């Protein structure tokens, strides 16, 4: 006898619990990634690296290289080149493991890859102080090793969502997952400032100790809560398990249990894949401009120092976090109600996110002295609206190539990581004097790249599983996608 059940609710559910655990995994991953950027401020004695404490006047504000009211004295006498080497070393490791991370997750399971990469990163984070006190070169090698491990983390998470995420819920589930990265940025800024002043072992080492321990504890929770596939999860309800399996199989074909070989020729010649890669690169270029170059713009042109703004500096990250989740909920609602197709939903998300971000960046470039509040508003709006890209190319990886989503995303991450290397270099070249006119050129260039990425994605993207990414069903037939609102039949004895 057959019984018919409706879709199990999302909250509470095992799949939503998994997204929350991944949220905290992204949170601690980004804390381990960015902690050095904040810790180095109190690690290095800037009064030794700069000849004197030269005051620079911007908009009538005097800025000095160090805070005269701070009691923190840097432990290391590094010059700017050494500091730059330590900070950039993470990304040289990060760019080297993206593709292999997705491949390993597909073959051995995302649970193991995520566990090993975050645990390894946490253990290496714990020995950052020892490495720093040994040699700056030892520290750079260690940071590159952390980058190499973390390069595999996000492709592995994406691989897990290819088997855990029902198509109509992917925007929400991936949005919740990756929003943790922004909260990690929000937390690590004030935490690092506090521990620099009041932490143990000289202050700055406690930043790495506390974040490293957090990472180890998270891994214990991850191993207990997660499972590579719904069918292997010991605590999931039968209805939810059947719903996920049926939905995912309907979208990409029946899982034969065999790991398919990666169709590299098909991937590299797919317009839909290159559309995601173009949007990914443009989005990351904009992100690096917001996170790396804009603070320099605020300092050069307006005399603003984000570290001196206190809680205000966290507002853009909080707005970004809210927009990522709101965009996911909105995108899934638009699709489920039939307002827009999957493809047009992804197009709309990318156009709003990237073109909107470019607009606010350009506007911020024309703010002048005395318009501090306005420029913070523009930056906050630009960062917030860019969060809608998570309902665009990020989830589209899972829609066009579910079995290979980790590998395809990892390749995209490798390409887009180049933006993190190229963007700061281009910015430095275009702003030799730090004038407002020079910065306007940088921001217009960024807006052009963002717009180009959104347009390329909109023209060549797809909202369906590509033929080469479909797994064969029993008797060689492909399974038709499950339509929204369609009920799932569960066979019972």
TrEMBL record:
GO BP: any one term? monoatomic anion transport
Protein's membrane topology? Multi-pass membrane protein
Species for this entry: Caenorhabditis tropicalis
TM region positions: 16-33, 113-131, 137-157, 178-200, 206-225, 272-294, 306-327, 348-367, 373-398, 410-430, 442-461
Q: Does the keyword Zinc apply?
A: no
Domain named Major facilitator superfamily (MFS) profile: which ranges? 18-466
A family per Pfam: MFS_1
A single GO CC term, please? Answer: membrane
What is the protein name given in its UniProt record?
Answer: MFS domain-containing protein
SUPFAM superfamilies recorded: MFS general substrate transporter
A Gene Ontology molecular function term for this protein is:
symporter activity
**UniProtKB keywords:** Membrane, Symport, Transmembrane, Transmembrane helix, Transport
Report which superkingdom the organism of origin falls in: Eukaryota
The listed locations are:
Membrane
The record's principal subcellular location, in a coarse class, is membrane
